[in-house]
Amino acid sequence: MSQDKRDYQLFNPKRFKEARIVRGLSIVELANEIGVSKQAISQYELGESVPRASTMMSIVNILGFPKNFFYKEFKEQYVGNTFFRASNSATKKLREIQYTKAQFVSYIYKYLENFIDFPSLNLPDTTKFNGFMWNRNEIEQLANDVREYWGLAEQPIGNVVNLMERNGILVCSFDMGARNMDAFCQPRQGRPLIALGNDKQSAARRQFDGAHELGHLLMHKDEIYNQDNLTKEEFGKMEEQANRFASAFLLPSKAFADSVTSSSLDSYIELKKYWRVSIGAMLYRSRDLGIITDSRYTSLVKQMSMKKIRVKEPLDDLLPVPQPQILRRSVEMLIENDVKSEQQLLQEVGMSGEMIEMLCGLDKGRLDFKDVEHKLSLIINNDEENHVC
């Protein structure tokens, strides 16, 4: 019996639950859409029963996943706790959706890994540091260590996203569905994952978000497993540490101090072109390093408020937003070099073209045409072979 037919015979309740969650539907909402009881949906997710053929067709159409996705068995891997920056304000539902998207990214990556040699994970050893109780000096030292380890000297980091990708971190970006959720990270078996939100399109914000999540992975990988049990104060402390790391990593103390030749707001706008860091973050770093006084910092922040440029800064519309490249290029490479056709890729990954495009940063519609043909062929497929009741 072929592998495809074996896949079809075993309905996978985990895939079904993931598809429901990523579409943002509750058990009751999906039950109403399909026309079955909520108990039936729960039984499908628990593996206590499987959908009838007609119900399966409704599931495919409503959730927008090809039929074979619900019969796929992906190789599971260890995933550490997902550290959400908006943990205290984001709803459980919203966090579940983003977590599931990250799972889908890992499924796609594991498939691509069969054909693509991804960069090896290349992170510095952090065991010499104390761990959870990171002080200012240790964070500065860690940021310097990473820069030295990656051969960055004291130059500006033009694209922190691609820098992390080149050093083996799996980076993706997609809409988070909320302006208060900027990014999250996951320690994972093999290589960690960082997901960046597309909801706020700003190069400087993307730079800082990426460096912030890198800080979590380096400083908190052994502690964030219990994030849900952290107090508000403990969570805030970890966020402060990650922010300090991002600031020190993107703005190395001596080089940055030497570049600040004036404390005028216009001069910081010019510095933003060079450092690719927000004016607000540079002002904070300047005060932290003693380049400007507290009173001067307050004055500059007030100036930004008066000019209404604290939320949307100058150059935010001009500087290109760093985008993850490796997943997109890997998919394109398979197709353009005739290793896989669009249809083969869709069938073997087992996801809709829309989902793969979104998670891998492909142009919208890149896989649409073949995907429609694939879905139709799956729906028409003889349902009696699925042995559902």
From TrEMBL:
<dbReference type="Pfam" id="PF06114">
    <property type="entry name" value="Peptidase_M78"/>
</dbReference>
<dbReference type="InterPro" id="IPR052345">
    <property type="entry name" value="Rad_response_metalloprotease"/>
</dbReference>
<protein>
    <submittedName>
        <fullName>Zn-dependent peptidase ImmA (M78 family)/DNA-binding XRE family transcriptional regulator</fullName>
    </submittedName>
</protein>
<feature type="domain" description="HTH cro/C1-type">
    <location>
        <begin position="16"/>
        <end position="70"/>
    </location>
</feature>
<dbReference type="Pfam" id="PF01381">
    <property type="entry name" value="HTH_3"/>
</dbReference>
<dbReference type="InterPro" id="IPR010982">
    <property type="entry name" value="Lambda_DNA-bd_dom_sf"/>
</dbReference>
<dbReference type="InterPro" id="IPR001387">
    <property type="entry name" value="Cro/C1-type_HTH"/>
</dbReference>
<dbReference type="InterPro" id="IPR010359">
    <property type="entry name" value="IrrE_HExxH"/>
</dbReference>
<comment type="similarity">
    <text>Belongs to the short-chain fatty acyl-CoA assimilation regulator (ScfR) family.</text>
</comment>
